[in-house]
């Protein structure tokens, strides 16, 4: 970075996490752009704050395609760098320009409102079952305390996304384990993460092959069948990348949203009272939680295709940038 004054030392990100609000406050004190060291010792940057993010994310030279990240390809970064799983994925979230529009169109042809609506009864059934089990577990626990995350917040969205994707029951436990290792766990080694990524890709391929052989009323079957007017379809890598995106976007975000919302209501009883008294609805709780304590604090990655100035700070070309 090259701001007008001497830059502060780069902040070393702890992969084990911590309070994202406290960390973002410390980084924002440095300005709209902060130097960071990503896990694995890779230098990067974070863009923080609403106006700075609007400016950066809308810039035509803020690319999503990892070909704009030279260090990923020239041997500078180790092959087992755990964040390669985000950079190397093929899908809408890593495509630019015409390629992004093509992928978005293909996925849009498959991911319809009807695909989501058909799951409504099943989601209601799953929710009721999990809540009943949560109540029984609380009644049986000596102190009446149960883990909301493992017993409700995680199995609900994971079950829903598996049904949406048409994942056969025998694969669901392994899919859950692998996605947890790749996306959520903070105590895994780079080698463990890369092994889980390889197995996850293989498992997604197995799921796709099963749906090719026996198509169903599910998103994977629809993605396989989707085509544009010129007959273009998703490649195998794009199909697997899109399935991975749906898996992550479909369960981690909802998992964290449920946890953040319950924690917020339990620590702000006046807000909980508004809901219980009918003065606010649960949709209001969802919207306010998304605003106040978002499920994802930082989103990887954008890469400046040339040196960009944001908030008076130059972000050098090819820097991996987190949107905070």
Describe what you observe in this structure:
The protein is of the alpha/beta class and 324 residues long. The protein has two domains: 106 residues, 2-Layer Sandwich (Uridine Diphospho-n-acetylenolpyruvylglucosamine Reductase, domain 2); 173 residues, Orthogonal Bundle (Cytochrome p450). The chain is built from 14 helices and eight strands. The strands form two sheets. A six-stranded mixed sheet has the order 1-2-3-8-5-4. A two-stranded antiparallel ribbon has the order 6-7. Helix 4 crosses helix 11 and helix 6 packs antiparallel against helix 8. The chain is globular.
What series of H and E elements makes up the topology? EHEEHEHHHHHHHHHHHHEEEE
Query: What is the CATH-assigned architecture of the largest domain?
Result: Orthogonal Bundle
Helix content: 40-55%
Q: For the CA atoms, what is the radius of gyration?
A: 21 Å
β-sheet strand percentage = 5-15%
**DSSP helix count?**
14
- Main sheet record: 6 strands, mixed
The CATH topology of the largest domain comes to Cytochrome p450
Spell out the CATH superfamily of the largest domain: Cytochrome P450
Number of domains: 2
CATH domain class name of the largest domain = Mainly Alpha
General shape: globular
For the secondary structure, the number of strands is 8
* pLDDT averaged residue by residue: 90
For the biggest β-sheet, the strand order reads 1-2-3-8-5-4
* Terminus-to-terminus distance: 17 Å
Overall SS class = alpha/beta
Low-pLDDT runs: none
